[in-house]
Task: inverse folding
């Protein structure tokens, strides 16, 4: 999980991670509203992807991130993770759920 700051720093961080690995693409969580519509955060994510695509040839895809934090919270509670520790790692666990969902979908194509 990369904490967003400015596009240049964010893009550099993503591309640095990608450069050190044999990746087939980049998956970005798309923050849709619960009714499936796209609000300002989703539009911002799409703009980020457009700008990032100008810097790399890797395909960039989106994965609906609705309920990923809920699933992560549930898993951490079941693992009896302390409240403090949950707060520290919830975004990382939610990101893992997003990526796993995308990978599972690709496996069925």
Result:
């Amino acid at each position: 999980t990369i904490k967003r700051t400015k596009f240049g720093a964010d893009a550099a961080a993503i591309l640095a991670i990608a450069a050190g690995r044999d990746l087939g693409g980049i998956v970005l969580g798309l923050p849709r509203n619960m009714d499936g519509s796209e609000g300002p955060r989703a539009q911002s994510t799409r703009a980020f992807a457009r700008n990032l695509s100008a810097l790399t040839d890797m395909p960039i895809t989106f994965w609906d991130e609705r309920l990923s934090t809920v699933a992560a919270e549930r898993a951490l509670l079941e693992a009896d993770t302390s409240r403090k520790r949950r707060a520290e790692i919830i975004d990382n666990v939610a990101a893992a759920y997003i990526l796993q969902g995308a990978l599972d979908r690709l496996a069925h194509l």
Observations:
- The radius of gyration is 15 Å.
